[in-house]
Design brief:
Blueprint (H helix, E strand, L loop, with lengths): L1 E3 L4 H11 L6 E5 L5 E5 L6 E5 L6 H17 L4 E6 L18 H12 L3 E5 L14 E4 L2 H8 L6 E5 L5 H11 L2 E4 L2 E3 L5 E3 L10 E9 L3 H12 L4 E9 L5 H7 L4 E5 L7 E3 L2 H9 L1
Parallel strand pairs: 1-4, 4-5, 5-6, 6-7, 8-9, 8-12, 12-13, 13-14, 14-15
Antiparallel strand pairs: 2-3, 10-11
The structure holds ribose-5-phosphate.
């Protein structure tokens, strides 16, 4: 049985269809005081797959996820595979300043405590996050699906990572698309402000693809696109795995002159055109 939380209903339905499994309905709403109600409405089976991204509203989606997992366990489900396509709180995976909560680790502990037996995630922000778990964690890369989507649509592409952190993704995408890649140097000033150093990259006559794992405020991509425009880029396509897209991030990105933005459906957005349902279904089969 497959259960989709509020944040991932469509993706869960697609995964259920791929696997030819029952999609178990849930009933969930908020009480007038803001607390969440949850009821599992389908037949209980021995094994359950719960799919829920924990993007905005992160805390509500997390609480709902804990309620689903714990309720399934108490109703007698033996094995619970939890799929968190976008793992919220993943960017606070260490103590950057003394006294800070290591939020990613705390969420990991709570997922295990609730009763998750195996975890499936797509492109975690930091790979070391898997060390926070004592259960098997399967990290899936969406980059081959992004490559497949772009295949044949671009003439003479070059892949650009907008910061060093995205270099692995750029390299993976460039290998799959059989083209060159490069990266820009970025410094984060605050959660909302980033600075990117200009760099001389030969992109003359090429289709430029900027790839990142997350687009949040859009600042990283806007800076990169401005630099690439100054270098004479004719066409700029932006690709990301997790379209967090805070407020008007997407509008700012288009206003900076990019031609198109594509993302996967780990999170719902106007640009979530690459469905990872087949990829997640395959990972669950193994
Ligand atoms: C940072 O390390 C991530 O890979 C992204 O570059 C970052 O989250 C993007 O944030 P924003 O869209 O707010 O610049």
């Amino acid at each position: 049985m497959i259960i989709g939380g509020s944040a991932s209903q469509k993706l869960a339905a697609k995964v259920a269809a791929e696997l030819n499994e029952n999609l178990c309905p849930i009933e969930t709403f908020k009480f007038p005081d803001g607390e969440r109600y949850l009821r599992i409405r389908g037949e209980i089976e021995e094994e359950a797959v719960v799919i829920q991204s924990t993007g905005f509203p992160q805390d509500e989606n997390l609480i709902e996820l804990f309620l689903i997992i714990k309720t399934l366990k108490s109703l007698g489900v033996k094995t619970i595979k939890t799929v968190i396509p976008y793992f919220g709180y993943g960017r606070q995976e260490k103590r950057f300043k003394s006294g800070e909560a290591i939020s990613a680790q705390i969420i990991a502990n709570l997922l295990e405590l609730a009763g998750t037996n195996q975890l499936f995630c797509v492109n975690l922000h930091e790979n070391n996050m898997t060390n926070f778990f004592n259960i098997p964690v399967h990290e899936i890369s969406a980059i081959p699906f992004i490559a497949q989507y772009l295949e044949g649509t671009l003439e003479d592409p070059i892949i650009i990572a907008p910061d060093k952190g995205a270099l692995d993704h750029a390299q993976e995408l460039a290998n799959l698309m059989n083209c060159d890649f490069d990266y820009l140097e970025k410094i984060r000033i605050s959660p909302e402000v980033v600075e990117t150093k200009p760099k001389n990259i030969n992109i003359h006559g090429k289709s430029t693809v900027i790839i990142d794992d997350i687009i949040s405020t859009g600042g990283t991509i806007v800076n990169a696109s401005k630099i690439l425009k100054n270098l004479g880029a004719e066409k700029i396509i932006v690709a990301c795995v997790h379209p967090v897209m805070v407020d008007d991030a997407l509008i700012k990105i288009f206003a900076s002159g990019v031609d198109d933005v594509i993302a996967t459906d780990t999170l719902r957005s106007d640009v979530s055109v690459v469905s990872l349902a087949p990829l997640i279904a395959d990972a669950l089969k193994k």
